[in-house]
Amino acid sequence: MRYLPHTDEEIREMLAVTGHERLSDLFRHVPEKCRFRGEIALPNQLSEWGLLDHFRHLDQSIATTSTRAVLMGAGSYSHYIPEVVPGLVHRSEFVTAYTPYQPEMSQGTLQGIFEYQTLTARLLGMEVANASMYDGASALAEAVLMALRVQRKKNTVAISTAVHPHYRQVVRSYLQASLYTVIELEVGEDGRTDFSPLQGVDDLAAVAVSSPNFFGIIEDLEEAAESIHDAGGLFITCFTEPFAYGLYKNPGQCGADIVCGEGQSFGMPQSFGGPGLGMFACKSSFQRNLPGRLVGQTVDLDGRRGFVLTLATREQHIRREKATSNICSNQGLCAMTAAAYMATLGRTGLKKVARLNFDKAAYLKQKLCDSGAQLLFETAVFNEFALKFPSDFAPVRERLLEKGIIAGLELGNFYPEYKGAYLFCVTETTSKEVLDTVIEEAGK
Asked: pTM for the whole thing?
């Protein structure tokens, strides 16, 4: 099998059809300064087994979570995955199954999605959950679009600056070509969102708040709901770490209208950044505006339990102008993984793992503060927290990196006003030995 897709003769034939003399003519629209000139320094060709050896060598040069202890979260978290989860999800019935366009032919997949929806709705305290979205960022963008549909003539959306910066960027990308306005709400001295600017907004459609937020702070969601509803907006709660709801009140209990976020923590490895899982839930009164798809339970003519695609208001199912979303497909296998993970842990297991996260993070936070560090915000957290150090922490971080520990995320990359502060994250996978090593190095 050859790996060159076209011969020189084929290329000449195609150029003759397009009216070009050289391949380079096809790229005239690319600015000259953006073009590469010269030969690419490629290595000599290798045999298949030689290439495999080369990749093994490259693998050893890359720092991964399997060979490093990573103490930073910021939207991606390392958690233990019970072996029963991949053992179940990697069965061929699930791995090879595609999105069920013909529901009556895909009962196993539909049941799995239905169970995922049920568990998600219970976790988030909402009345209805969809069959999943791509990831947390796109889920938030779709939640904003949904709120604008529900609110109709209102055109302004507010987002807390404590929402993950990447999530905020995705929302701006979705809305930049529209007539909608996006405003950002700053955080106060306690790291929580300041809602006082909402009082001057006349056409407020929705407000998006994250809890835990990017700094690890637990927002006062009940107070947020009151402020947002008083201003006439819908309350959107997003999240990057769903384990927090194993310990704290879920958004539904606090008055949220729409809840969305990233479900990677539930059974999915970090895998260099993906794939993720967009979790999405809302009040039942909004379900006709729900993006994506919804699986329901029914009975057949013989009274047997069955599952059907109850709602699919997207472009491939209904007329384009009536579609609520152009989301192409749900993250079926990832949703199945999250369902298997939540079912494996159960309510009690979820609380236990959440408590482990909280306790280990509290231990590291207290010890680092005892050694001279200062909390960026004096407010309740879950498994992430931000610290400032009396001296430059960068050399300490370099020494820890040599010991296989990646300690903290420099916040100045996202928030220039917090340059020199670091965001730490601890999960149940972090050993006390690693935590004590960080504490020891930081105290030198």
From this structure: 0.86
